[in-house]
Amino acid sequence: MRSPRFRVRPGSWDTAGATVLNGGVNFCVFSRHAERMSLLLFERDTHKEPYEVIHLDPRINRTFFFWHIFIENLPDGVFYNWRAEGRCDSIETSETGCRLDADKALLDPWATTVSDRLWDRTAASRPGDNVAKAIRAQVVRDDYDWEEDQPLHIPLNDSVIYEMHVGGFTRHPSSGVVHPGTFNGVIEKIPYLKDLGITHVELMPVMAFDPQDVPPQTARMGMENYWGYSTHSFFAPHPGFAVTAVHARDEFRDMVKAFHRAGIGVILDVVFNHTAEGGETGPVISFKAFGNEIFYHLDFEDRRHYRDYTGCGNTMNCNHPMVTRFLIDALLYWVRHMHVDGFRFDLASALARGEDGHPQHHAPVLWAIELSPSLNRAHIIAEAWDAAGLYQVGDFPGYRWAEWNGRYRDVIRGFVRGDPGMVPEVATRMSGSSDMYEGRGRLPMNSINFITCHDGFTLCDLVSYNRKHNEANGEDNRDGHDHNLSWNCGVEGPTEDPEIMALRRRQARNFISILMFSQGVPMLFSGDEVFRSKQGNNNTYCQNNELSWSDWGLVEQNREMLEFVRSMIALRRRHPTLTRDRFLTGKPDYGHTRPDIIWHGVELNAPGWDDPDSHQLAFTLESKVDDEPLLHVMLNMAAHPIEFSVPRIKGLEWSLALDTSREQPAVAPEVQHPIAGERIQLGPYSVVALEGRPNWVWNPPTD
């Protein structure tokens, strides 16, 4: 251990990463097989050679398998990499799975600020030195002023989630923000989101990822990994989303603080199932060198190869004790130091796989997350499947975990497009999927209900295309899902036919209405509220262009759709009976004499449970709190109009709150009129909702 420029001390192994302390900086990193370790220092992130290389002495700079050193008076802002050396099998002959590579400049896995301005994925994937083309970590002092901000702790059952991409939300020239495609740009659009009525944003990956991680033919077409499901730094915000890359951490915090001031929580989409290092031909960035056989699932018979349960080349060995600690530390960091309100875990079933690759119901990492006192108020949401066939929706390990309910999506899509015989399951999905959750002691809030998300068609495309159109991705339309359960309403893609256009918009309103009338937690996908299309491409992971970006011109162009979504969120908000924290029973509750729900079909009390051709369903929801109107909802997904019976309740008067077949579908309470008669006609493919109030307090609007 020597350094002609700085005074150094052995340092400490109790805190990984680069920690600024009084008098200097402590560096610490983990490596099981390294025999020699060097720290490379750079004055700037664009410098291709280090200005100082400090060689650590294993006798005084290694404790167990942690390497550490303290550098006195090291200034803030210095960039650094590690080099790890030692006896190790080559990738061609590996028996242990060790992948130490003394030629590679390694990124600190615990880095909180990184720069990828010199990054070249190809150089990190082939033999030889890549120090001039590596991702750099930076030493940063943490003195951010949170101004008393704290996570909001909005109950999940009261939430409406809005999934969005940080870069794409304001990248389009129409956004009009000062810094498009950044955390700062998002701040300028928070009033729009607040006015929409959502309670949380769910941000697609913001942990630093590798935009260069795409198939070769896609890269040759000038495209990149836009979605960000290719994380390399689990403690650092993505530098590409910052106005100034080295300030990414504080710019992210500014955004979180601004969201919280607006009463909106922040949920992060985290990718713990794999990393940007890919398979055996992928780059060496950090984990492969520091602990390949620890951090990844390797093939039992040939440890040169990776077991791929994610479809991305590798799978993190999440239930190894070291990896579990690493991932928990990352979550704690984002809650404690970045004030996020929760996490959505991409391909979360990969985290349920033990070190042998088999599913574990008591997977240590999942239960550690569930039971962590420091995470007990953070929302945890699982995408409860992986790419190797493990599907755990309704059966994900734990009790507190909410799940993206893929079954809800598929059932509602089929029903709205007119598939027959789905009424019983539609009722089950809309009432919180009790068949999946209640028997295990879980609650309606365990179900994250959605129609669309980033992965698949937008809402506009769901009603405009029968098949995917992914040719622009450069994979001959082989990528993306074929099981879309979509209906183009008669013409594939764009059309000028006014009847088809009207039907598509009505179907979109039907989807939004059913979503908002369902027990559980509704999630919207960004742009659906303004009927945004991606031209039938259901896998825009590589499209960092106008195909993926939010077009703010649609706010005016499709103003009626935006106002409709706002109205439906507001309607849900004024009906606490739609956000119950317990399952409906069909019996009286909350001191009422009427059942909490009564199911109907076209006729009262006669749902078509056994009718294989039925397209109709209706239900009456009892209020949950005083002064809340009763709610009666009718669904007709047949291609022809049909009359429904309306329940008559003594002392109660019904008024029309919603009819998706009308040009002005949502009716605000102050302009509603009582309806007469005991039957009401629903148009083809339409949803109608009535609100019931005591007739003795009814104040009809005046002209």
Written description of the protein model:
- It is built from 17 helices and 27 strands.
- Helix 9 runs parallel beside helix 10 (364-371), helix 11 crosses helix 12 (423-430) and helix 15 (498-516) runs parallel beside helix 17 (559-573).
- The longest helix is centred in the C-terminal third of the chain and has 19 residues, at 498-516.
- The N and C termini lie far apart (86 Å).
- By secondary structure, the chain is α/β, with parallel strands linked by helices.
Taken from the alpha-carbon principal axes, the silhouette is: elongated
> Mind telling me the C-alpha Rg?
27 Å
Structural classification: alpha/beta
Mean pLDDT: 95
Low-confidence stretches: none
Percent of residues in helices: 10-25%
Q: Largest sheet, if any?
A: 8 strands, parallel, barrel
Which range does the strand content fall in?
A: 15-25%
Tell me the total number of β-strands: 27
By DSSP (H or I, 4+ residues per run), the number of helices equals 17
Distance between the termini: 86 Å
Order of neighbouring strands in the sheet with most strands? 11-12-15-16-17-18-19-20
List keywords for this structure.
alpha/beta; five-stranded antiparallel sheet; single chain; 27 strands; elongated; eight-stranded parallel beta barrel; 703 residues
